[in-house]
Design brief:
CATH superfamily of the largest domain: Histone deacetylase domain
Low-confidence stretches: 1-5, 407-412, 427-444
Bound molecules: zinc ion
Order of helices and strands: HEEHEHHHHEHEHEEHEHEHEHH
Number of domains: 2
Structural class: alpha/beta
Strand content: 5-15%
Largest sheet: 8 strands, parallel
Radius of gyration: 21 Å
Number of strands: 10
Number of helices: 13
Helix content: 25-40%
Strand order of the largest sheet: 3-2-4-9-8-5-6-7
């Protein structure tokens, strides 16, 4: 810690380093950010503000964290790269639709789930290619071994589906990254600590045992996206390889960290991933515009630090987060965890938009006491027990033929197809309800 025990004169203060090294061990970290991605606008009233990415980058630069990482300005993903997961008709649609020609394609808008959540805004296709390009660039550095940890805060858009956008996400950069990783890695672990269920990623890999998806999120059946109950465990060969941790409002630092570690530790030991993808959605923080948890920045970061401690190659992605000043604080703090330094909790003096962080100008404002914790010890213990029972079915890590990769989505058995269709039908039935629930959020 950098707690001062006495006052320093102005000159010493000026020379004080912005961070202190934590340990001798430091993995090779890379940071993948194309500044253009922060320039897009979903719309004035829309809670998703790509501006939060620019704010994050200002903090990372302000603390000089670039000195501790390889910094890349990635190029946008190509159309062909998007087609590795997304359907051609959907990518065609994204490519041609603009706010000006909406009326010409009005018949397609409903088919492609365009609405208040996922509006057509200026440059939506270019924006999607930018954040996806950064995730794919980060992935390639992990695959080549150039990086042990690769960070893309503009990525992590976990709701996008094969043929439609969902929950502010148009292209699923996570699925595309995991598909690339599967060419070289036998087992990929995906961890999602966004407030919302990581449904798009779970759905894409629901039938394979090569990707284990784990999502911690608010769940009550109606809260967006409506899925993610503890009994969703995967299908066919992927059965038991999807883990869902449904939580109630107001979960606090201590219970979240305890639950997270007590699940992730045995899970990593038994699944033995060769690479981990961590989605760090910031809407699980307390005081988030769309949030309902009580987490502080240090608690969120503690989960990321815990995963890093396993020393397995790690792709670190952003995700949700709708109070830009806290999103940027969190992701800057988590960048410091990855680069193994301790930041002064007082924000650097000369960063742009410093007034956004008034009045405290601290990296660690108190976000943790706004809501009652509706997660009793008994409830959390019950969830944990169910999940640990599920781990017993794993029978050790699956060993795989690398020729199976990437998973062929078209080669499902009839039984698996039926099971998926049934799940999709159920999901359709709750879509109206969850869209209605979302309208309230958008007007907030
Ligand atoms: Zn979210």
């Amino acid at each position: 810690m950098t707690e001062d025990t006495f006052f320093t004169d102005a000159k010493t203060q000026k020379k004080k380093p912005l961070y202190q090294p934590n340990s001798i061990y430091s993995p090779h970290v890379s940071y993948h950010y194309n500044p253009n991605v922060g320039e897009y606008h979903y719309g004035v009233k829309h809670p998703m503000k790509p501006f939060r990415l620019m704010l994050t980058d200002h903090l990372v630069i302000g603390y000089k964290l670039y000195e501790k990482m390889d910094v890349y300005i990635p190029k946008p993903a190509s159309r062909d790269e998007l087609l590795n997961f997304h359907s051609e008709d959907y990518v065609d649609f994204l490519q041609k639709i603009t706010p000006d020609n909406l009326s010409k394609y009005s018949n397609l808008l409903k088919d492609f789930n365009i609405g208040d959540d996922c509006p057509v805004f200026e440059g939506v296709y270019d924006y999607s290619k930018l954040y996806t390009g950064a995730s794919l660039d980060a992935t390639s550095k992990l695959i080549s071994g150039a990086s042990d940890i690769a960070i893309n805060w503009s990525g992590g858009l976990h709701h996008a589906k094969k043929s439609e956008p969902s929950g502010f996400c148009y292209v699923n950069d996570i699925v595309l990254s995991i598909l690339d990783l599967l060419r070289y890695h036998p087992r990929v672990l995906y961890i999602d600590i966004d407030l919302h269920h990581g449904d798009g990623v779970q759905e894409a890999f629901n039938t394979t045992d090569r990707v284990m998806t784990v999502s911690f999120h608010k769940y009550n059946g109606l809260f967006f996206p409506g899925t993610g109950n503890v009994d969703e465990v995967g299908v066919g060969k992927g059965k038991h390889y999807a883990i869902n941790v449904p939580l109630n409002d107001g979960i606090d630092d201590e219970s979240y960290i305890r639950l997270f570690k007590s699940i992730m530790d045995p899970l990593i030991t038994s699944f033995k991933p060769t690479v981990i993808v961590q989605q760090c959605g910031a809407d699980s923080l307390g005081c988030d515009r769309l949030g309902c948890f009580n987490l502080n920045i240090k608690a969120h970061g503690e989960c990321v630090k815990f995963i890093k401690s396993f020393g397995i190659p790690l792709l670190v992605l952003g995700g949700g987060g709708y109070t830009p000043r806290n999103v940027s604080r969190l992701w800057c703090y988590e960048t410091s965890i990855m680069t193994d330094v301790t930041l002064d909790s007082k924000l650097p003096e000369n960063i742009p938009f410093r007034n956004f962080f008034n009045p405290d100008c601290s990296l660690h404002p108190n976000l943790g006491d706004k809501l009652d914790n509706k997660n009793s010890r008994k409830y959390l213990e019950n969830v944990r027990t169910k999940i640990l029972e599920q781990l017993r079915f794993l029978n050790g890590a699956p060993s795989v033929q690398m020729s199976e990769i990437p998973p062929d989505f078209s080669k499902l058995s009839k039984e698996e197809e039926d099971e998926i269709n049934e799940l999709n039908n159920e999901e359709r039935m709750i879509i109206d309800a969850k869209d209605n629930a979302r309208i309230g959020e958008l007007e907030a």
